[in-house]
Structure formats: C-alpha cells, structure tokens
Amino acid sequence: MVDPQHHAHWYPTAAYLYVLCLDTLALAWEYLRRHPDYRLDWLRRHRRPDAAHRWGLRLLEDPALDARDAQPAWLPGSDAVVQLHPDADPPADATPFSLWHIPGHKQLLHDGKGLALNAHSPGRCLRFALAPGLEDGMAVAYAQRGRGAPNVPDTPAPMARPRPPPVALLELHTLQALDATLAGASLRQVAEGLFGSDAVTADWHADGELRARVRRLVRRGTALMRGGYRRLAQIDSPGKGRFAGDAKRP
Question: Is-above-0.85 flag for pTM?
Fold first, then answer.
C-alpha cells in the first residue's frame, strides 16, 4: 500500500482537479514543465538565453508554476490564439476594442515579440495576440489560424460542462501517473494512488487490464513530456536532434 505522506506531492488526486479546466495550450505547459531537461535549462537560463526556442517558447517560464499561474510565451502556431488588429476599413457600426470589456481575470505580458493577453474565467480561457498600434477604442479586426472565422469570446473548457469529458479525465490521470513515475513509484504504487488499494488488490495481475491501463498512462505521459506536448500547442517539431526523437518515444 502506498504511504500518502511519503508520496504527498502526487498521491492526492484532488490536487489535480484543476487539470479538468485546462485548454490544450495549458495542458502542453503542464507536460513541458515536468521535463527534467527543461527544468535544467530554467536553472541555467542566465547562461543560455536562447534555450527557449528548442522547447517551442519565446521565453523560458518557471516550471514551478502550474498552468493556473504560468504565462508561457509559445511560438506562434496554435489556432487557440485570436489575433487582434486595428481594422483599416471599419464599418460604421464596428465594435471598438475595449480591454476591460473582455471577461475574466486578465494577464498581459510581452512575449519578446509583442503583447499577449490571457483572460481566465470559470470554465474557459481566452487567448489573444495584440497587434502593434492597437489601442483602446479602435475598431478591431479578428484573425485566427486554421479556421475560416475566429471563435472569439466563448469556447468553454471541459469544467464548464455538467461533467468533464473522458479526455479531461485522461489528462488528469496521465499527469498524476507521470508525476508518480518521475518520483520513482512502481506501476503498482501508481495504480494504488490513482484507483485505490482495493482495486489493486482485486485486479492487479501480470496480464490484467488494470496493469495495462497504468502502463499506458505512464507511457502516454512520458511521450507527451518528451515532445508530444508540441502537438497540443500546435507547434511543429524540429526535424533534427534529440528533441524530435524524444517525441516519438513510447
């Protein structure tokens, strides 16, 4: 049986409930921040100021911050980010840009290229890239990669629904299993932490489904940490080097 005190940082499933509210960019950060080499680059950031690009970031972010507090500056690519530009030829009834009318708790940062705005409210996160020259009160035009029309203000995250979908629960279990593995837990200990000691006592067999399920979670978490997060962030993987190889590992 797992000692909850000995594994306090990964054992309580309740500590991972915030994962159910995350969008894909936030999930990408959760996997990246666990990578040991990324954490090492963060510690050496003053000696390696260019290290961020190998991870798909413009700037390194503190891996101690989870997705609720972190503001990772991703390289462009995700269609979750809505670009806001001054409208060069606005109609008479154009809606003016107003920072304070965007709902939610706002985080404004300069990512080394331009201003980025994240607006968090229960069940959703809105992400914007602000074009140079855009000012409050200007007519605004929206642009979004990969879609015919921008999905601007209201795409709910999983927690906004009556019940979180299976994919959200999968991410929760994957991150918990990954943390347990990085802490040195065995597959059986991971299973006890995620599903309880009673379930393990009843169903833990060499060729059993529970053991196979835990193994898949660990492999999935490792693969996402070692480069698969780039797919979540919609960033092209490098064509060469150790990082590309890591992304293919099971």
Answer: no
> What is each CA distance from 197 to 1, 73, 130, 188, 220, in whole angstroms?
6, 41, 50, 9, 23
Using the Cα atoms of residue 25, residue 30, residue 33 and residue 36 in order, give the sign of their dihedral.
negative
Q: What is the DSSP letter of 139?
A: B
Q: Do 228 and 30 meet the contact criterion of CB atoms below 8 Å apart?
A: no
Please state at what angle helix 209-223 crosses helix 166-182, rounded to 10 degrees: 80
Q: Which phi-psi region, left, alpha or beta, contains residue 181 (left: φ > 0; alpha: ψ -120 to 50)?
A: alpha
Place of tokens 């950060």: 29
Tell me if 157 sits within 8 A of 8, measured CB to CB.
no
Each residue's pLDDT expressed in tens, for the chain with a length of 250 residues: 445 445 568 989 999 999 998 999 999 999 999 999 999 999 998 888 789 999 999 999 999 999 999 989 898 877 788 888 898 888 888 888 888 888 888 888 887 788 888 887 776 788 888 888 888 888 888 887 765 444 444 444 444 455 667 889 999 999 999 999 999 999 999 999 999 999 999 999 888 999 999 999 999 999 999 999 999 999 876 544 444 444 443 3
